[in-house]
Write a structure and sequence with these properties.
Aspartate Aminotransferase, domain 1, Aspartate Aminotransferase, domain 2, 2 domains, about 40% helix
């Protein structure tokens, strides 16, 4: 049939009873339509577009991925390692992560319990997509990196925030009773991020043990984001839920290569969980990204096997920057903050600033610096700001000078 003969008008004029009562739908899924663009992302875009702005709002520094990692990925590409691979990661990388646990944690995690993902962010999505049904409650200890909360929204889960409390001079604390009182029969998952972005809070091992017992008793999953576990300043790694869990506990631990080895753009992470969940996560991974590029995984192996000295150096630089910031903050009486024990963020309050969003805009307009507003991490931290100190010292110095100038007026 030629195109001109196609009876389109007669088809359109017929009534289809199956469709006669169809109401007009939203352009996209209702869940997506209802997701508002955050005020913060609008301001961040505005600030980043301005030339000469010092950007301390994002969780990364300026140091490129070290050569030994880049070379490993390049060699893999040169050898033709660029085809589809196993959905949950190559055996070689999963074994390498297993050995990393043996070296760094001091115990064995079988590679069959390790699932490679295209980033820590994807690890969070895979975990929540596997566990959370529409209407399930997810209890999240906040402030928290916003993408974790966004991942709950995507699953149409219901977020229940349990805010940490800040006691000046004593740091951030979690009230365990508050956490337990937030759980109901509908609670499917509790999300913990320790060391925490943005506060640097570390969950004490005794609380981890209590929470694990509670989760076992009430059949609740724990999703533990341990992406910053190596960015801790007085020891070589933070406590992990894996230290106290049994192999078949309902626990998923999220990790990433981004922060330790300056690999933010590589998009590589992993989940550690019970062996039994492998086939479920497999389906989520299969129908999402269907694996991670094989040459990227070779970069990951190099990072794990040769990356300890590099990581030590990164931690040393961050420690020096942390000390520098807190020396400066000591002399700025309007800044209220506690030194973080981990991560490379300073999360501080400014006396006289209640609306961090408009303060962020003012900092961009008047002083050409961007920090992340506390509101981006929780509705309870509207008076706070977060700055990333994994940057060269001179940048930090200029940013703090400018901050000091502006807060004189508050
Ligand atoms: C707490 C937390 N989890 C996960 C991630 C994600 O890391 P990735 O770069 O691997 O997606 C971030 C990134 O900032 C983070 O802060």
């Amino acid at each position: 049939m030629r195109k001109a003969d196609y009876p389109i008008n007669s088809i359109l004029s017929k009534t289809n009873n199956n469709l006669s009562n169809k109401s007009k739908k939203n352009y996209c899924r209702d869940t997506i339509e209802n997701m508002k663009k955050s005020e913060w992302s609008v301001i961040a875009q505005y600030g980043r577009a301005k030339s000469g702005t010092i950007k301390l709002d994002v969780g990364e520094g300026d140091v490129p991925t070290p050569d030994f990692i880049v070379n490993a990925a390049q060699n893999a590409m040169n050898k033709g390692d660029m085809f589809y691979g196993p959905v949950l990661g190559s055996d070689e990388l999963r074994e390498s992560i297993s050995s990393y646990y043996q070296r760094i944690h001091g115990y064995k995690i079988e590679s069959s319990r390790i699932f490679v993902t295209p980033s820590g962010t994807a690890a969070i999505h895979y975990s929540l997509s596997t566990l959370v049904d529409v209407g399930d409650e997810v209890v999240a200890v906040t402030p928290l990196w916003r993408n974790l909360l966004g991942a709950i929204d995507l699953q149409q889960g219901i977020t229940k925030e349990v805010p940490l409390t800040h006691e000046i001079g004593k740091g951030w604390k979690l009230d365990m009773d508050k956490l337990f009182n937030s759980c109901t029969e509908k609670t499917k998952v509790i999300i913990i991020n320790s060391p925490n972005n943005p506060t640097g809070w570390i969950m004490p091992v005794k609380d981890m043990k209590i929470l694990m017992e509670y989760a076992r008793k009430h059949d609740i999953w724990i999703v533990s984001d341990e992406v910053y576990s190596r960015f801790i300043y007085d020891t070589h790694r933070a406590p992990s839920f894996l230290d106290i869990a049994k192999e078949d506990d309902k626990l998923l631990v999220v990790n990433s290569f981004s922060k330790n080895w300056c690999m933010t753009g590589w998009r590589l992470g992993w989940i550690t969980g019970p062996e039994k969940i492998a086939e479920k996560i497999y389906n989520v991974a299969l129908y999402s990204a269907m694996g991670v590029s094989p040459f990227i995984q070779q970069g990951g192996i190099a990072a794990l096997e040769q990356g300890e000295n590099f990581l030590k150096q990164m931690r040393k630089n961050s420690l020096e920057n942390r000390e520098y910031i807190y020396e400066r903050f000591k002399n700025m009486d309007k800044i209220i903050s506690d030194k973080p024990e981990a991560t490379f963020y300073s999360f501080f309050k400014i006396d006289g600033v209640d609306d961090c969003i408009s303060f962020t805009k003012e900092l961009i307009d008047k002083k050409n610096i961007i920090f992340a507003p506390g509101y981006a991490f929780s509705k309870h931290t509207k008076g706070y700001m977060r700055l990333c100190f994994a940057v060269p010292k001179h940048k930090l110095e200029t940013a703090i000078n400018r901050l000091e100038e502006i807060i004189k007026d508050y």
